[in-house]
Amino acid sequence: KFGPDHPKVAKALNGLAELLFLQGKYDDAKPLYERAIVIWEDIHGPDHPKVSTGRKYLAKLLKADGKDDEAKRQYDIAIATQEKILDPNSPNYASDLLDLAGLLKDQGYYDKAKPHYECALKLSEEKFGPDHPKVAKALNDLAFLLDLQGNYDQAKQLHERALRIRQENLGPNHPDVAESLNNLAQSLRHQAKYDEAKPLCERALKIR
């Protein structure tokens, strides 16, 4: 219907690859991710968010498959692409910053990722107001990084704020609320506060 090099084909390839990846079928998923990247490069050029995202997915697969050197190469290319396309005048600047920060976090570059997360949060608050779901997303991502850095008290405050925003905007039974509940519970578990974490996990399970 569309031909072998259509964007819809690339999207379908990436979706099938993700399913195979989740099933642990890495050898089957890898060529599908690679073909999707080639299609997106042919359509958009190498310096495009879709290409960067495709490389991120491929890197995660390679890392899970124990191919750390190959994974690092894909992550580094994706990071370089994301840095190149950053435009402070773009309406998607905050989202692009979150994508770049996520790539840096996945590579363990926590100190480099943190200012990007903080900037994305500030921009989202300025653009949408302090209680918007997009602000909750930025809070969630920054809190997750703080957990990884061992800054549990600060992370907990951000998780709690993200949870409140999502509950108020999306209702108590939304999947994003379940995500925030789980993230807050995980932060509490890191501090051995199991009694506080348990009811949050139980509530998240009921939502899902």
Structural notes for this entry:
This protein is mainly α and 208 residues long. Helix content is 81%, strand content 0%. It has ten helices and no strands.
* Topology order in helix (H) and strand (E) letters: HHHHHHHHHH
Helix-residue proportion: over 70%
Going by helix content, strand content and strand pairing, the class is: mainly alpha
Treating each run of at least 4 consecutive H or I residues as one helix, how many helices? Answer: 10
| Residue runs with pLDDT of under 50 for 5 or more positions | none
Q: Gyration radius, to the nearest Å? A: 18 Å
Mean pLDDT: 92
Task: Count all strands and give the number.
Answer: 0
Largest sheet: none
Q: Estimate the strand proportion.
A: under 5%
Shape: globular
Give short descriptive properties of this protein.
10 helices; mainly alpha; 208 residues
Q: What is the secondary structure topology, with strand pairs?
A:
Layout: H1 7-22, H2 26-44, H3 49-64, H4 68-85, H5 93-106, H6 110-128, H7 133-149, H8 152-170, H9 175-190, H10 194-207
Helix pairs in contact: 1-2, 2-3, 3-4, 4-5, 5-6, 6-7, 7-8, 8-9, 9-10
